[in-house]
């Protein structure tokens, strides 16, 4: 987000103060949109707020003007 969290982009006006959360779920990493104004997009799909979605190696995450690709540590170049 722009204001709080572990990764901040304070100048990205498309991000909410707290935009989304990535966390360790029961079956691996998951992402949850925190009710952001502009939404969180995973692999081209807009997430429903407050619902958790799995993320895996190769998953693309778009928040605000930022785009991230998830890479398993063993698959790094």
Describe the structure.
There is one protein chain. The chain is an all-beta fold and 77 residues long. 0% of the residues lie in helices and 36% in strands. A four-stranded antiparallel β-sheet has the order 4-3-6-7, with no helix packed on it. The model has no long low-confidence stretch (mean pLDDT 83).
Please supply descriptive tags for the structure shown above:
single chain; about 80 residues; mainly beta
Average residue pLDDT:
83
Q: Spans of 5+ residues with little confidence (pLDDT < 50)?
A: none
Biggest sheet strand order reads 4-3-6-7
Secondary structural class: mainly beta
Shape: globular
Per DSSP, the total helix count is 0
Q: Whole-Å distance between the termini? A: 28 Å
Number of strands: 7
Task: Chart the SSEs and their pairings.
Elements: E1 20-25, E2 28-33, E3 40-42, E4 45-46, E5 52-54, E6 60-63, E7 66-69
Antiparallel strand pairs: 1-2, 2-5, 3-4, 3-6, 6-7
Quick synopsis:
The protein has 77 residues and is mostly beta strands. The protein is built from no helices and 7 strands.
């Amino acid at each position: 987000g722009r204001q709080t969290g572990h990764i901040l982009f304070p100048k990205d006006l498309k991000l909410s103060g707290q935009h989304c959360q990535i966390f360790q779920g029961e079956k691996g990493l998951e992402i949850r949109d925190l009710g952001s104004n502009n939404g969180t997009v995973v692999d081209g799909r807009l997430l429903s707020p407050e619902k958790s979605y799995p993320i895996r190696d190769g998953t693309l995450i778009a928040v605000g003007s930022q785009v991230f690709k998830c890479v398993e540590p063993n698959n790094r170049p």
